[in-house]
Amino acid sequence: MRDAQPTAIQLTDYKEPAYEVVETHLRFELEEEFTLVTSTLKIRQLGESNELFLNGQELGLESISIDGRVLGEGEYTLGDESLMLTGLSAEHTLQVVTRIYPAKNTALEGLYRSGGMYCTQCEAEGFRRITYYPDRPDVMSVFTTEIIADAGQYPVLLSNGNPVSEEVIGGKRHVVWHDPHKKPAYLFALVAGDLLVTEDSFTTCGGREVALKIFVEPRNIDKTAYAMDALKRSMRWDEDVYGREYDLDIFMIVAVDDFNMGAMENKGLNIFNSSCVLANPATATDAAYQRIEAIVAHEYFHNWSGNRVTCRDWFQLSLKEGFTVFRDACFSADMNSATVKRVEDAGILRTVQFAEDAGPMAHPVQPDSYIEISNFYTVTIYEKGAEVVGMYHKILGAEGFRKGTDLYFDRHDGQAVTINEFVQAMEDANGVDFTQFRRWYKQAGTPVVDVLTSYDSGAGRLTLTLRQHTPDTPGQTDKQPLWIPVQLGLIGKDGSPLTVTPDQEEFWTESSQVLHFREAEQTFTFSGLEQEPAVSLFRDFSAPVRVNYQQSRETLRFLLRHDSDGFNRWDAGQRLMLTWIDDAREGRFELSDDDINVYRELLNDTDLDPAMVAYLLALPSESYIAEFSGEIDPLAIHSAREEVSGALASALRDDIVACYQRLNIAREYEPDPAHMAQRSLKNLALSYWSRTGDDGLAAAQQQYQKADNMTDQMAALRALVNSGDRMRAQSALDDFYERWQSDPLVVNQWLSVQAGSAEMATIEHINDLLAHPAFDWRNPNKVRSVIGAFANQALSRFHSADGEGYRLLADAVIRLNESNPQIASRLLAPLTRWKRLVPSQSQLMKAELQRIMQQGNLSKDVFEVVSKSLA
Ligand code: TRP
Ligand code: ZN
């Protein structure tokens, strides 16, 4: 907690470190009440300065010595969060002993207790809560870790690298780990606990055998198989697709219940939020399986994109996160349906990321300042950053892209670098000038592309005019044109693809069908067309932009039927549905026969991937609709969407029932793409059917009772909860809790299905959930399951006219500000959007932000978000 106004860190203030840490030796003595940390550093001067600056936070300093001589109080300067030593010479051994209190650590940064175990989270700046250290990613060191703990209570003691020794002396277990790879402190990890392990092995392309181990608390030992399978597939994929081999003899994953984020890529010892690694068919949904596959891959891929080549400073965060998200997205696309993955990712961009870009926290993929770095683990850094990497792939093609990454990894192995080095490698490997493209990293905000087309039937020529501008964002005006890859297709009247080559060939890449749109306004012509084509733009979501292109409903239905690009088929359908929602808001919605027919065809098209059909038939979510609205009116959005949904369900009722019955066959649960696709369409059909009357609800009840897997059980429960039939909903919820109360990951799903439901999530009900014995404010997953689900999903409840939803969220933020600032700050996101809401709501939201601002002792995390929101 702070006294003075926190200050912003600027990218332009970057200075190289004065000392390097050649070797880091850490000794942890884990006692019941506290932990003693002895850090022994071999330091060496790098430049002119002989000031050694060490970060430290909430540490009890026991002693400092240099080359074996204990320093007196006048021989160092102890700041609030720092330790300074001056007048040193070139090389020394520095030893610092600190006392820390992991059991009291509720922020879950540094060393803390989760359940009966100890674990660490050091990214971004958690290591400074363990010992005094130059806690910055450009200081890379070789770590040796010694852990001493009660042998009975903590039979498993882990750290990075390879095990060196283990012995038990007088009831204490002593272990030593050594990591031969230089790394920044943020990749350090330690785990101690009474854990069980699942073991397997992987033989690398170079023929080395790697031991794979997943450690869990004993009750979870039946939930490790899928993560292990995903890990082996990830290791093989990184060899095949990027030529990257694993580099230690052991790779470990540990599951912990209390964790601020999804998972962490610590060298050789990944630590996971248990919700992102544990699964079995009875307890985890298909969505959870897919999340596990993606996150296991993500953390594994960091071994190269993040660990071997790391970031110079935290302004470069997207260097590792954007790139690694791109890598895990391609992996998931290869393992499942590429189109479905693209639809899901575009959905996240268009809702969460576009909203961030349009709000007070908007920042570029490479920010230029921050108050608290934890606030910058955002969808912009991760997901927009991944889209930016993906655009190199679009522009250069797969081969050129691979040349670029090969050069990047080879040139910078063992270094801490900047985003610029990544771009430079892409340029050098391909002989392409990306000067203009670099603007994607510096300019915040979502570019808007306006499209005009006209067809000259006499000349057989299509004219396409594109205009781009990027709106102002806080602190940024007058943005320059970006290099936007526009993947393009033209479709003939009979639905078949036409060959496309613009007359301006210098702006066209044939192999990837990409048009290079680089000016504020650019006109392209396509000659020699015998008929007016339908235009399919931004195929495969080729750039993270908003597009304004008026196409008739007839054209949208045509694209929905015929576009060979699956992503644009879906996109055309969503655009069509958004026109229905608009009509409903104006009180003049009616489904036309043409609309009904196209959706009926899709529902019955058994050649299509059922997962894709499910996406094609799903209405845009309320937050998606909100992002496509001017002023946001959540209640109007909710009722319009309900009306459309009900109309579609009754118009297609017979086909929906038939689809459900066709797919509702008893099969053994498999978490593979074909089975998951079948379940997703079946459960979409159930969600529509259950809106049409009693037989649909009876079907949901029956599925709930019969289900042998959580996907089907949860889908049925959700249908019942959202049906508005209180009796049926409550009896299923009671039954569910009764059955699953001893499994916290399942109970979290039970919490969030209620908290995120427009039908159930009244303030009274949310308060009941918060008071429920299953709830725990110290566990981030539980907080997300109730408060997060409520504020991000049950929009019509959260935005209730009396402002009670806002009050509840602000109270939660105030409460968590002290115990867990990272979680408090992340929960705030929905309130930061206040300027976009209708005025009555907007004022209520602002008042809650002001109330938070008036609290004393705001953490840097919460202070930054609230103060920027009110600015
Ligand atoms: N690097 C982690 C990732 O894979 C992010 C992360 C995990 C994190 N835990 C964190 C970031 C805690 C900040 C704080 O994306
Ligand atoms: Zn990551």
Write the layout of secondary structure elements.
Elements: E1 9-10, E2 19-30, E3 35-45, E4 52-55, E5 60-66, E6 69-70, E7 77-78, E8 82-85, E9 91-100, E10 110-114, E11 117-121, E12 141-150, E13 156-159, E14 162-169, E15 172-183, E16 190-193, E17 196-203, E18 209-216, H1 225-242, E19 250-256, E20 263-264, E21 269-273, H2 286-301, E22 310-311, H3 317-335, H4 338-357, E23 369-370, H5 379-412, E24 416-417, H6 419-430, H7 439-442, E25 448-456, E26 461-469, E27 484-491, E28 497-498, E29 508-509, E30 514-517, E31 521-526, E32 534-537, E33 546-548, H8 553-562, H9 566-585, H10 593-604, H11 610-617, H12 622-627, H13 634-651, H14 653-663, H15 673-689, H16 694-706, H17 710-721, H18 726-740, H19 744-755, H20 763-771, H21 780-793, H22 795-798, H23 804-819, H24 821-827, H25 829-832, H26 839-853, H27 860-870
Parallel strand pairs: 2-12, 18-19, 19-21, 22-24, 25-33
Antiparallel strand pairs: 1-23, 2-3, 3-9, 4-8, 5-6, 5-9, 7-8, 10-11, 11-16, 12-15, 13-16, 14-15, 17-18, 20-21, 25-26, 26-31, 27-28, 27-30, 27-32, 29-30
Helix pairs in contact: 1-2, 2-3, 3-4, 3-5, 4-5, 4-9, 5-6, 8-9, 8-10, 9-11, 9-13, 11-15, 14-15, 15-16, 15-17, 16-17, 18-19, 19-21, 23-24, 23-26, 24-27, 26-27
This protein binds tryptophan (TRP) and zinc ion.
